[in-house]
DNA sequence: CCTTGAACTCAAGTTCACTTCAACTTGAAC
DNA sequence: GTTCAAGTTGAAGTGAACTTGAGTTCAAGG
């Protein structure tokens, strides 16, 4: 029950839904690990399927590769994750999801009130005034939290 | 009340919170329009502030430039938008926001139940089984709607 | 053995949404 | 009339997350 349980690239790819190239990329980025066959081909442990599922969910929620690497770093590479391990990382996630949900609800609230006012007047509607309000509060303030704002590209 | 009401780049930039370069980019992409001074400098109508506010909100919600262009296309370029105009596009938005909110709540729900099960077993937890489940349902199925999935990059 | 499909590597390309740069030109103020 | 911040253009660069391509090797079935 050792080398027979290892899965080849194709299997991992189709079962995870990721392209082989993406899987290689994740390995290069240190998100997953692979053993090698005699001839140099990758052989994956079953547990990488779990990691890949995590990666997909995380990136769907908007985490970057870097953040995902951090999260996965909290999982023990060698031993099976314990309840406490999952608890730690999922607390982190829960908060992020709550943030996103709240932000979208705020945005929708703003939109609803905008429909109410008809947006005919630049003076009375918070939404159509977002420009002026943003100028006084800094770009994109408070409608959405950092976690949902587009990461301003070349601005690090 | 014609040429005196037009705003220069700097004003638009600071009031909208967008960098001048971004504003030029949006003009090039056809999201906004600008008049020109005798010497070729941009002069903006006040209404572009509203458009820019819309652009910011839309892109925060995850719409692409292309989608935003479509949305803005529904607004009349010449006449002042009517209540009905805004109603049309905001219905569209409301639905999208509802989708996103629901998706995040589903994701969080899944996560919560995962904490409950402790994720010690690959067999019993929907979350840790996401890989296999995804393989049978197609990549990334049903946890998130298309609107929230990362647009698979070079796959058009 | 031979074929064939799956896998390998490494460099380079792609998309999106901008930003940065270099080299000018404008235009409001004094 | 001079000054200089603010504006202009076009081309090139950026970062994230992969994909694509070229050329080569592996490994399982017949």
Automatic annotation (TrEMBL), chains A, B:
Record flagged with keyword Repeat: no
PROSITE patterns: HTH_MERR_2
NCBIfam families in UniProt: SoxR
Entries under Gene3D superfamilies matching the protein: 1.10.1660.10
Record organism: Nocardioides glacieisoli
Gene Ontology molecular function: 2 iron, 2 sulfur cluster binding; DNA binding; DNA-binding transcription factor activity; metal ion binding
Region (Disordered): 137-156
InterPro entries referenced in this protein's UniProt entry, alphabetically: DNA-bd_dom_put_sf (IPR009061), MerR-type_HTH_dom (IPR000551), MerR_fam (IPR047057), Redox-sen_tscrpt-act_SoxR (IPR010211), Tscrpt_reg_MerR_DNA-bd (IPR015358)
Alphabetized UniProt keyword annotations: 2Fe-2S, DNA-binding, Iron, Iron-sulfur, Metal-binding, Transcription, Transcription regulation
UniProt KW Acetylation keyword: no
Alphabetical GO biological process terms: response to oxidative stress
Segments forming domain HTH merR-type: 6-74
Protein's recorded name: Redox-sensitive transcriptional activator SoxR
């Amino acid at each position: 029950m050792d080398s027979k349980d290892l899965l080849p690239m194709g299997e991992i790819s189709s079962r995870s839904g990721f392209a082989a190239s993406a899987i290689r990329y994740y390995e290069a980025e240190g998100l997953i690990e692979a053993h090698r066959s005699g001839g140099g081909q990758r052989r994956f442990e079953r547990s990488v399927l779990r990691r890949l599922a995590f990666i997909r969910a995380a990136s769907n929620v908007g985490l970057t590769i870097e953040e995902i690497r951090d999260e996965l770093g909290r999982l023990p590479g060698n031993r099976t994750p314990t309840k406490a391990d999952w608890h730690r990382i999922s607390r982190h996630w829960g908060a992020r999801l709550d943030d996103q949900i709240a932000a979208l609800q705020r945005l929708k609230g703003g939109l609803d009130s905008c429909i109410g006012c008809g947006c005919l007047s630049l003076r009375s509607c918070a939404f159509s005034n977002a420009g002026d309000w943003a100028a006084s509060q800094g770009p994109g303030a408070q409608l959405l939290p950092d976690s949902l704002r587009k990461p301003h590209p070349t601005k690090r």
